Amino acid sequence: MTIPADASDSDTDLLTAVRSGDTAAYGTLYERHRGAARQLAFGLAHDPADADDLVAETFAKVFASLRAGRGPLVAFRAYLHTTMRHVCYHRARRDRRLEFTDDLTRYDEGQPFTDPALDRLERSYAVAAFRKLPERWRDVLWQTAVEGNSPAEVADMLGMTPNAVAVLAHRAREGLRSLYLQQHVAVAEHPECRWAGDRLGGHLRGRLAARDAARMRSHLGWCGDCRGRFAEISEIDGLRHRPYPQRHHADRAG
């Protein structure tokens, strides 16, 4: 849903008022954006009670950030939706760790379970990361990783040598991986934290220039929040998610 320009301007004034201690201004923001928030919440959590909890927790988190002098200065709805996706993601990860059992003497792994809401969120992160890649990288990644074509086959399509395709595909995969991890990092308020947050994925994958890597290490040495974000995406990277499943040639033949 597109927000009219005058409403966006009004949101900016309301955000300023909330930072000044006007709780009624946040009530206005809540009423204005509650419908859109509920629509997104029902896309992330099918159960009405879970969706309502997600909306309530998201608005509470944003309000706490604003009262602490952080949070958005403009684009309230975009910030609200980003916060909700992160709340949903963290709730799903937390719930996966819970175990209710009377017998702790042994564990039965059983059948693997994929949380639908978490899976949808992961896919949205993968799509967002893919769209941020340069067009040439998207082309070669799609042909090799999704369609399952060999570098020699892709070389004919793109007018490149097979070796050049292989090198470009490797760079594209690394770029996608860094951007995919980056989607999991919450928006930071401090300028230096925003600088670090934009590069945490690249730092984890060893893709930063030497000067930026040294600056990142220095920042992580004193910033506990960014260390937490880095630990979060390190855990995600350790799970070895594959954003795009590769298709087999037999599938294409059928």
From TrEMBL:
<dbReference type="InterPro" id="IPR013249">
    <property type="entry name" value="RNA_pol_sigma70_r4_t2"/>
</dbReference>
<feature type="domain" description="RNA polymerase sigma-70 region 2">
    <location>
        <begin position="29"/>
        <end position="97"/>
    </location>
</feature>
<dbReference type="InterPro" id="IPR039425">
    <property type="entry name" value="RNA_pol_sigma-70-like"/>
</dbReference>
<dbReference type="Pfam" id="PF08281">
    <property type="entry name" value="Sigma70_r4_2"/>
</dbReference>
<feature type="domain" description="Putative zinc-finger">
    <location>
        <begin position="193"/>
        <end position="227"/>
    </location>
</feature>
<dbReference type="InterPro" id="IPR013325">
    <property type="entry name" value="RNA_pol_sigma_r2"/>
</dbReference>
<feature type="domain" description="RNA polymerase sigma factor 70 region 4 type 2">
    <location>
        <begin position="128"/>
        <end position="174"/>
    </location>
</feature>
<dbReference type="Pfam" id="PF13490">
    <property type="entry name" value="zf-HC2"/>
</dbReference>
<keyword id="KW-0238">DNA-binding</keyword>
<protein>
    <submittedName>
        <fullName>Sigma-70 family RNA polymerase sigma factor</fullName>
    </submittedName>
</protein>
<dbReference type="InterPro" id="IPR036388">
    <property type="entry name" value="WH-like_DNA-bd_sf"/>
</dbReference>
<dbReference type="InterPro" id="IPR007627">
    <property type="entry name" value="RNA_pol_sigma70_r2"/>
</dbReference>
<dbReference type="InterPro" id="IPR013324">
    <property type="entry name" value="RNA_pol_sigma_r3/r4-like"/>
</dbReference>
<dbReference type="InterPro" id="IPR027383">
    <property type="entry name" value="Znf_put"/>
</dbReference>
<keyword id="KW-0805">Transcription regulation</keyword>
<keyword id="KW-0804">Transcription</keyword>
<keyword id="KW-0731">Sigma factor</keyword>
<dbReference type="Pfam" id="PF04542">
    <property type="entry name" value="Sigma70_r2"/>
</dbReference>
<dbReference type="InterPro" id="IPR014284">
    <property type="entry name" value="RNA_pol_sigma-70_dom"/>
</dbReference>
<comment type="similarity">
    <text>Belongs to the sigma-70 factor family. ECF subfamily.</text>
</comment>
